[in-house]
């Protein structure tokens, strides 16, 4: 007997009787829409994320111009076109990536970046610094609403990002920049 | 060796025990703060629990649906009935691609299957990439916690380890500096890896995708750079639909470390261009646990570790004292089902205070199950004599009123006069680290009869 059949048969023999799938509640923060931006900002600030205005973005990015910049955001020029690259290993030297995020979640600061925004799946991770541009109109209250707003299988890969890469594996001391970006800047457009 | 004996070793260093205890209690505190900010937290736990109940009662059909969808997405799905088959499957994928070095992110399942040791025997080097996991891998130790694998180590010990093995400055122990050294060391490994392995937090039946949660971004660095990606999951990781991720991602980070969500919540549905994506679905005793009505709830666990952080025994005995892949309260109800004789004593590594059940995000009745495992241990005749003999004696005394009165009186006299060695010896493990309370002159019964005579 194949292991698949073996496992499925054992499950059928051993599983409990039917239990209903509960209906999910509406977004608990749906009524507090005017507070979403403040909550979003506060939560991200607590996870060491900073904010930048649309007006300041181009000059900030210019500060990196002697290093490798990838940008897919209009009006923010980069110096490496991610579409010209076949092998993601060629992104190893990227200093700054500027990408769109599809939505932002007020309760936890998570922002959805799919393969269409990232171009290369590894880009938001391998870059030394990351800037995400998210529209104010694309904020939602909680993760319940977030999963209603996106289609997780629209592309082959998608990620919620809620801060710069971090670890606390040495004596619970927070260190920013474990393997991924050393900083995350968010531009609310 | 029993848990109590290993815990005794851990407790020899009192200052270190206190430090360990406080580190974990701090995480528990962070969890409380963030949980209390969610007014609907209890309803959310109930939802998590109910969804998992539904999963267990439809596990076969959800897994079949997952496989169908994943296959349609271009993912190769494998089924392994036990650890040995899981290891063989992973090895065969790597062998086909002639891979001799892989990067791996945290996976308790691969720990459970001893994948690293197996692959090493086959000549494949495994690099654990989570910082905590890399630390304990370099120390050749198992993890002591499922979320914070190196929580038992001091920064000075890690500094010494990195000095010896990664060439950092001697005596340096600043976490920022050590993390930077690990970042540089592991970035080389990521860039060179031809295959990457991760665990799975959730598998979505509806979409055929898997979700991996990390803070460091190590799973993504591995998976997106290596042409071959392998995700290993226990059968219980499947959930029905994408919208249910809303419930579990809200529960997981808050319960685990007091964060509103992990920094990265990655959804993998299709292999990258020119790449391969494999999912290995593993039983390894889980279907057996599913058949144990009183214990099947343990399969609802989402591996947040909250029960460990809150447990007064875990905090004061350390993860290694459990001698099992998953330590702490949840490990103590999972492991007896695998080997009752070896792990049965873990059912006693608890005060049954119930704190584990209170913090569990999917409402597993952990402390009730611990109590039930104790009964199983007793029924199977596996209790040690230090427990059976006193318990048999106590049973006789407690079921005979007259005998109870006589023994009570005798004990009061004996305990006040007997030499210490008669009271505090091997037959009284309770007295090893504790003093018995002062013996009263009379029993409560005698006192009541004397002072309430008129009311009789």
Automatic annotation (TrEMBL), chain A:
<protein>
    <submittedName>
        <fullName>L-lactate dehydrogenase complex protein LldG</fullName>
    </submittedName>
</protein>
<dbReference type="InterPro" id="IPR003741">
    <property type="entry name" value="LUD_dom"/>
</dbReference>
<feature type="region of interest" description="Disordered">
    <location>
        <begin position="1"/>
        <end position="25"/>
    </location>
</feature>
<feature type="compositionally biased region" description="Basic and acidic residues">
    <location>
        <begin position="1"/>
        <end position="12"/>
    </location>
</feature>
<dbReference type="InterPro" id="IPR037171">
    <property type="entry name" value="NagB/RpiA_transferase-like"/>
</dbReference>
<dbReference type="InterPro" id="IPR024185">
    <property type="entry name" value="FTHF_cligase-like_sf"/>
</dbReference>
<dbReference type="Pfam" id="PF02589">
    <property type="entry name" value="LUD_dom"/>
</dbReference>
<feature type="domain" description="LUD">
    <location>
        <begin position="93"/>
        <end position="186"/>
    </location>
</feature>
From TrEMBL, chain B:
<dbReference type="InterPro" id="IPR017900">
    <property type="entry name" value="4Fe4S_Fe_S_CS"/>
</dbReference>
<dbReference type="Pfam" id="PF13183">
    <property type="entry name" value="Fer4_8"/>
</dbReference>
<feature type="domain" description="4Fe-4S ferredoxin-type">
    <location>
        <begin position="291"/>
        <end position="312"/>
    </location>
</feature>
<keyword id="KW-0677">Repeat</keyword>
<keyword id="KW-0479">Metal-binding</keyword>
<keyword id="KW-0249">Electron transport</keyword>
<dbReference type="InterPro" id="IPR024569">
    <property type="entry name" value="LutB_C"/>
</dbReference>
<dbReference type="InterPro" id="IPR009051">
    <property type="entry name" value="Helical_ferredxn"/>
</dbReference>
<dbReference type="Pfam" id="PF11870">
    <property type="entry name" value="LutB_C"/>
</dbReference>
<dbReference type="GO" id="GO:0006089">
    <property type="term" value="P:lactate metabolic process"/>
</dbReference>
<keyword id="KW-0411">Iron-sulfur</keyword>
<dbReference type="Pfam" id="PF02589">
    <property type="entry name" value="LUD_dom"/>
</dbReference>
<keyword id="KW-0408">Iron</keyword>
<dbReference type="GO" id="GO:0046872">
    <property type="term" value="F:metal ion binding"/>
</dbReference>
<dbReference type="InterPro" id="IPR017896">
    <property type="entry name" value="4Fe4S_Fe-S-bd"/>
</dbReference>
<dbReference type="InterPro" id="IPR003741">
    <property type="entry name" value="LUD_dom"/>
</dbReference>
<keyword id="KW-0004">4Fe-4S</keyword>
<dbReference type="InterPro" id="IPR037171">
    <property type="entry name" value="NagB/RpiA_transferase-like"/>
</dbReference>
<dbReference type="InterPro" id="IPR024185">
    <property type="entry name" value="FTHF_cligase-like_sf"/>
</dbReference>
<dbReference type="GO" id="GO:0051539">
    <property type="term" value="F:4 iron, 4 sulfur cluster binding"/>
</dbReference>
<protein>
    <submittedName>
        <fullName>L-lactate dehydrogenase complex protein LldF</fullName>
    </submittedName>
</protein>
<dbReference type="InterPro" id="IPR004452">
    <property type="entry name" value="LutB/LldF"/>
</dbReference>
């Amino acid at each position: 007997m194949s292991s698949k059949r073996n496992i499925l048969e054992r499950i059928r023999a051993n599983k409990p009787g039917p239990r209903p799938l509960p209906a999910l509640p509406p977004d608990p923060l749906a009524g507090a829409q005017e507070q979403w931006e403040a909550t979003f900002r506060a939560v991200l600030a607590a996870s060491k994320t900073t904010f930048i205005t649309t007006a300041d973005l181009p000059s900030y990015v210019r500060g990196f111009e002697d290093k490798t910049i990838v940008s897919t955001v209009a009006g923010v020029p980069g110096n490496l076109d991610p579409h010209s690259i076949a092998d993601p290993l060629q992104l190893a030297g990227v200093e700054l990536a500027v990408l769109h995020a599809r939505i932002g979640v007020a309760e936890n600061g998570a922002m959805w970046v799919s393969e269409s925004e990232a171009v290369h799946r590894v880009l938001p991770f391998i870059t030394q610094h990351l800037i995400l541009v998210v529209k104010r109109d694309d904020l939602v209250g909680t993760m319940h609403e977030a999963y209603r707003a996106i289609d997780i299988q629209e592309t082959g890969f998608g990620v919620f990002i809620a801060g710069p890469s971090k670890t606390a594996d040495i004596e619970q001391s927070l260190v920013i920049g474990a393997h991924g970006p050393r900083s995350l800047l968010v531009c609310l457009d | 060796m029993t848990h109590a004996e290993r815990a005794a070793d851990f407790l020899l260093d009192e200052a270190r025990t206190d430090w360990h205890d406080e580190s974990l209690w701090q995480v528990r505190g962070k969890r409380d703060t963030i949980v209390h900010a969610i007014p609907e937290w209890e309803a959310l736990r109930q939802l998590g629990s109910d969804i998992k109940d539904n999963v267990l009662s439809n596990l076969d059909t959800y897994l079949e649906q997952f496989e169908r969808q994943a296959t349609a997405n271009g993912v190769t799905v494998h089924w392994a009935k036990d650890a040995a088959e899981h290891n063989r499957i992973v090895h065969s994928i790597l062998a086909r691609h002639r891979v001799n070095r892989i990067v791996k992110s945290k996976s308790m399942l691969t720990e459970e299957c001893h994948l690293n040791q197996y692959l090493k025997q086959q000549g494949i080097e495994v690099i654990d990439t989570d910082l905590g996991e890399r630390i304990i891998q370099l120390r050749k130790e198992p993890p002591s916690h499922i979320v914070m694998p190196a929580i038992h180590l001091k920064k000075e010990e890690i500094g010494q380890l990195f000095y010896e093995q990664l060439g950092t400055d001697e005596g340096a122990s600043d976490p920022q500096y050590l993390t930077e050294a690990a970042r540089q060391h592991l970035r080389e490994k990521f860039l060179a890896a031809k295959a990457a392995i991760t665990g799975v937090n959730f598998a979505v039946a509806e979409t055929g995708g898997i979700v991996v949660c990390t803070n460091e971004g190590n799973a993504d660095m591995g998976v997106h750079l290596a042409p071959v990606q392998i995700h290993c999951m226990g059968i219980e990781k499947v959930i029905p639909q994408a919208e249910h991720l809303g419930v579990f991602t809200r529960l997981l980070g808050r319960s685990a470390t007091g964060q509103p969500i992990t920094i990265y919540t990655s959804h993998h549905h299709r292999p990258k261009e020119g790449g391969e994506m494999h999912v290995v679905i593993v039983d390894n005793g889980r279907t057996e646990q599913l058949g144990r009505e009183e214990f099947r709830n343990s399969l609802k666990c989402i591996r947040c570790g909250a029960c460990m952080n809150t447990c007064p025994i875990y905090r004061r005995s350390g993860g290694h004292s459990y001698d099992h892949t998953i330590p702490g309260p949840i490990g103590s109800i999972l492991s007896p089902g695998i080997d009752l004789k070896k792990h049965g004593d873990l059912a006693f590594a608890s005060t049954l205070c119930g704190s584990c059940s209170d913090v569990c995000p999917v409402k597993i009745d952990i402390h009730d199950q611990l109590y039930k495992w104790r009964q199983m241990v007793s029924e199977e005749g596996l209790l040690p004599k230090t427990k059976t003999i006193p318990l048999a004696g106590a049973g006789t005394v407690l079921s005979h009123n007259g005998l109870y009165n006589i023994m009570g009186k005798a004990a009061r006299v004996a305990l006040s006069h007997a030499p210490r060695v008669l009271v505090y010896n091997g037959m009284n493990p309770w007295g090893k680290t504790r003093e018995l309370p002062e013996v009263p002159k009379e029993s409560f019964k005698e006192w009541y009869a004397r002072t309430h005579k008129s009311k009789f």
